[in-house]
Amino acid sequence: MTMATSPTRRRTALPLRRHSAICVCLLALAAATPALAQDGAAGEPQLRRFGVLVDAGAPHGIGISAVLRPLPWLRLQAGPTTNTLSFGLRAGVSLLPLQTFIAPSINAEAGHYFGSEYNDVVDWLGARPTGSSTSDVTYDYVGGSVGLEIGSASRFNFFLHLGLSYVALKVDDASAIIQDVANDPSITARDLSVRATVPSVKVGFLLYFF
Questions:
Q1: Domain count for the chain
Q2: CATH code at 73?
């Protein structure tokens, strides 16, 4: 009886030990998985969504915008602008296809400049108006550009944008302009509209707060 029972007990104990070792390994793996997931999430860079953008360029002047970045590849901005003669408003969108320190961007924006006096515009261009007209000069624009973003995936971002802008300029009561060009104060004219596509350049920086 003793000789027959001992091998049986050994054969029975081996599977039990194997099953126990497997169960212990599975429990250890189950316990470690949430911790690894938390460590991986903590190691990922946090996407900063809100910031401020400051830029300067031609022909649209200087601007400051609030920035919203709902997705890593999408940036929205809007804010006031000035061309030293009048103030305006603009809104834009940027696509950031690469999340690297140096990355390209595709940009589009639209804006409006409120009226500035015609005499101020002529003085700004270096000429002297012959009349005393206070006609308003306003313009709207839509532009597209490609850019180079340095630090696009970090808190601070410097950028350079090059592109084209479609500008629609309007002068209320264009008599003063025609009189200055023709040197004839007797000429009268209606409102003047000028449309053109011009090159544009812009440099600036962007700072994300949170």
A1: 2
A2: 2.40.160
Peptide bond into 59 cis (omega under 30): yes
* The token pair that represents 49 in the structure block: 């969504």
86 and 134 inside one domain: yes
* Rounded Cα gap, residues 15 and 44, in angstroms: 43
Contacts of 150 (CB under 8 A, 6+ apart): 101, 102, 157, 158, 159
As a whole number of angstroms, the distance between CA 165 and CA 59 comes to 9
pTM above threshold 0.90: no
The proportion of the chain whose per-residue pLDDT surpasses 70, expressed as a percent, equals: 64
**How far is 163 from 25, CA to CA, in rounded Å?**
61
Query: Do 22 and 59 fall into the same domain?
Result: no
User: How buried is 138 (Cβ within 10 angstroms: 0-12 exposed, 13-18 middle, 19+ buried)?
Assistant: middle
Separation between Cα atoms, residue 140 and residue 196, nearest integer Å: 11
Query: How far are the Cα atoms of 29, 117, 133 from residue 120, in angstroms, in the given order?
Result: 75, 5, 10
Of 95 and 31, the structure prediction assigns the larger pLDDT to: 95
Q: Which DSSP category does 202 fall into? A: E
Each residue of 117-156: pLDDT tens digit? 666 665 655 556 555 555 677 889 999 999 999 987 778 9
- Bridge partner list, 90: 79, 111
**Are 26 and 106 members of one domain?**
no
Query: Dihedral (C-alpha) 93, 98, 99, 100: value to the nearest 10 degrees?
Result: -120
